[in-house]
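Before relying on records like the one below, remember that each one covers exactly one chain. Contacts with other chains, cofactors or solvent are not represented anywhere in the record.
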Amino acid sequence: MSSAALWAAIIGAGSALVVSFLKDFLFEWLKERRAKRQSQAEVYRQYLAPLCETCEKIVWRSKEIFVDKRHAFLKTTTLPLDFNAYKRISTLYRIATLIGWIRGMNLELRALPRGKSNYATPIAKQITAFQKALADGPHVELHRVTRLSALWSIDLSRLDQAEQAALAMRFEVEAHAATGGNLKSNPDHLRNLPANEKLEICRCLSAYLAKETGSKAPDEEVIRETVDHAVGGLSYREALLYRDWQDALGDAMIERDPDSVRQFRIVGYEGFTALLETEAPWFEVLAKSIDDIDFDEIDPSDFRSQQLRDVSAAVAAILIGIAQTKDAFLLDPASLDAAKRLSAAIAAATQAQGNDMGTCAARRGGS
């Protein structure tokens, strides 16, 4: 066989192998990948309508709180008691329903072929912000350290952002150790201690902060004068729903739906009220997450007020995000307008709060 014929045979055989590979493997893989992407998009769209409707309900309730300033129902003493108790529970139901829809959608996406899905929904960033608002506490720890350091004239400026965050975490451990580990279970534990015990705790913690930052320890007179403010800064309320707790809560909020294209549906309001009575820690935290938040006179030690702001802003952002996609037709125009007004009101309130904190710090620095 001539060399030309040999090369022709080799090229022909190679071409046959390439065509076979493209046909049997690559094209099938691309086809399967495209089908999977279509399935993922279908699952997302199946859950988007009820998720959108739930966000709208949360936005209207949040608008009532932050735009219309009709937040008296959050206080457990506001009359009529039964009606306002219903409003608090229904607010929690709306938030828990959104957690449930997100959980159901994620479970169904992960059940698709080839295991865990890496599909990013068009509103993935906004959903992550919602979950973060419910779960994350590092900013709470840092706020506490910043507030106490300013109170005791301890300079944090020599630490960079990462070092301050690390100090805040260590201080949290130190504070719980100094108070017998009772702060988490009883926010009023410190306030109820005898005066000499409060003073000793403040001495211990101020000395710890001074040592960790390389600062001069505050004078005894400063510690005595600020003990009540320091105790207020250490005695705090929070309602963090950690990521795994959100999954557990979401699992409890959904059930199989045999009558829908979706695999899951949300449990009814009656079922939810029963869940709130359980001893599961995620429902215990949720049940107390908005009771007695006072927006007329905000307690700087009650971090639930900022959390409710963050959650509300994140839900508004979900609706605004949907409005920027091809699924915008799902939105009620009035609800979208309410979401935009809510987002603007919360941003303005957060800015004003930051300015107030800066003014207070400047006054302390000048005194």
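The chain is about 70% helix and 0% strand.
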